[in-house]
Amino acid sequence: MVALQTAAAAGLTRVGLQSAHAAEPAAVDTAPAIVIGSGYGAAVAALRLGQAGIRTLVIEMGKLWNTAGSDGKVFCSTAAPDERSMWFRTRTEAPLATFLWLDVVNKDIGLYPGVLDRVHYDNMSVYVGRGVGGGSLVNGGMAVTPLQSYFSEQFPTVDATEMYNTYFPRARTMLGVNTVDPTWFESTEWYQFTRTSRKAAANAGLKTTFVPNVYDFAYMQREAAGTATKSALAAEVIYGNNYGKKSLDKTYLAAALGTGNVTIHTLERVRAISRGTDGTYTLTADRIDTTGAVVETKQYSCTYLFLGGGSLGTTELLVRARETGTLPALDASVGTGWGTNGNVMTGRANHIWDTVGANQSTMPVMGIDDWANTANPVFAEIAPIPTGLETWISLYLAITKNPERASFTYDAATDSARLGWTAAQSAVSVSMAKKLFDRINSANATIYRYDLFGNNKTFADDFCYHPLGGCVLGKATDNYGRVKGYPHLYITDGSLVPGSIGVNPFVTITALAERGMARILAEDTAP
Ligand code: FAE
């Protein structure tokens, strides 16, 4: 952590123990191991490689988020977004398009490598984090372990007992998972919105459950008491949290740098991967400045290459490598098995007496758990709308058991991956979510909100927070993430998860990466 802060203060784009001490560190073009990306899967890889004494270079396309802007804050809030909010945009693209049909949510901003990206494909756009820590910088921190039975359904070749006894607990400990104090939850104004949604669900005979989080709830209680600077209680979340949240830069990545073997290069986007006749991998990466201009094209080489660019990033790199012939032997399943985790967002209008409170914590702590309903399995996170005003809105991010999957194909004209997701595939998620929320509306005599998602839509069916798959475990890779056809090439991120996991996914991604790294370090890197 010290290394992260020192390096950021010096304005460096290379972060590590060595670089923290030197103004102009020597270029590291060759490393035994390279990790692409710095989200969950990448961070696990970096730490475990560093601990194994293997010199490792992490290449991240986003910024290191540790330097305060002119307002004294590293990140901006959802209430006042500026250029730090979004990845090279001139206007924010928040999940809620409008409020009361008014265009008051989104704001014009300057072009900058901001922390949240919304990647647009036909019929689906995907929110992802950009920066050292990947999605952990922008997400809601919900740290949910999936039902063992559904995990086994999705990963039939993985030893679930070992996952639940060893790797899930290891991931939760490392991530700093904790739970809200139930007594405080029942009394605080900051979770009135959750209690109102719980009551509406209970009226429909639906079960709710507390969900753990990586936001430090002791810190949040101090925020509420006025003794700590507010973050979750100051509308900070999707554009980053200045305090309280244990994002990866404070957990896995800080520990990785602490090994002394890991260096992070930022604002460098890997675009090509090839393999030499000696079996080493060569990468081409574009280094950008904060205007987005490519200021240098760099070559790297390594013996062990770990892909942690996330479902979109890793899959695009491999689809491009296969189709342009730089890694021609990649399996035909690379690019397939992609899904949205059944994501769909919706809002309900409560009665005037069912207030949700002007003050809302940005960290969700409860879900409506109807996953056991085999006719229509849904797990719906009770989400905040932290506007500082009473809105009477109950917002939800539903995770449905949508079986639809799509594939990525390589588009030579744009040198990028295209996603073949259709509107009909989103309609499957909507129909499942609608059954659940129709039940809640009918039990409470309430209706949907029409003013939030544009075009009078009641369900946001065109974006997701949980991109999963593209390089599915056991298909594109062996049972541990080793890429088929290419020795010493590994995947550690959400692209391994086959499109659905039934809950918010980062604990699963982290635990699977822990499992893969344990096996790979034991078997593949011995001298
Ligand atoms: P990810 O965290 O996306 O990291 C990939 C990293 O690689 C990023 O930093 C990229 O910038 C970088 N990268 C990609 N391509 C390249 C390249 N070519 N060269 C260099 N760098 C590259 O991957 N999940 C939960 O479990 N609980 C939640 O409460 C939750 N809330 C969410 C809220 C929002 C708004 C969003 C967007 C997501 C949320 N998620 C949540 C999803 C979660 O953050 C996501 O599943 C994980 O971050 C995925 O982890 P990966 O390691 O796959």
In brief, what are we looking at here?
Its cofactor is FAD. This protein has 527 residues and is α+β, with helices and mostly antiparallel strands. Helices cover 26% and strands 21% of the residues.
- How many β-strands, per DSSP? 22
Q: Categorize the overall geometry.
A: globular
CATH class call of one domain: Alpha Beta
Helix and strand content put the structural class at: alpha+beta
Flag low-confidence runs.
5-12, 18-26
Q: What is the annotated CATH architecture of one domain?
A: 2-Layer Sandwich
Mean pLDDT reading = 94
Explained architecture:
The protein has 527 residues and is an alpha+beta fold. The chain has a domain at 179-238 and 341-461: Cholesterol Oxidase, domain 2 (2-Layer Sandwich), CATH 3.30.410. It is 26% helix and 21% strand. The protein has twelve helices and 22 strands. It has helices at 2-9, 17-21, 40-51, 148-154, 160-175, 182-187, 192-203, 217-225, 252-258, 310-323, 423-444, 506-523; strands at 14-16, 30-36, 56-59, 116-121, 124-129, 208-210, 262-265, 268-275, 281-288, 294-307, 336-339, 343-349, 366-370, 378-383, 393-400, 408-411, 416-419, 447-448, 459-460, 463-464, 468-470, 489-491. Strands 1, 2, 3, 7, 8, 9, 10 and 22 form an eight-stranded mixed beta sheet that branches. Strands 6, 12, 13, 14, 15, 18 and 19 form a seven-stranded antiparallel beta sheet that branches. α3 runs parallel beside α12 (506-523) and α5 (160-175) packs across α12 (506-523). It is globular, with a radius of gyration of 22 Å. The two termini are 30 Å apart. Bound molecules: flavin-N7 protonated-adenine dinucleotide (FAE).
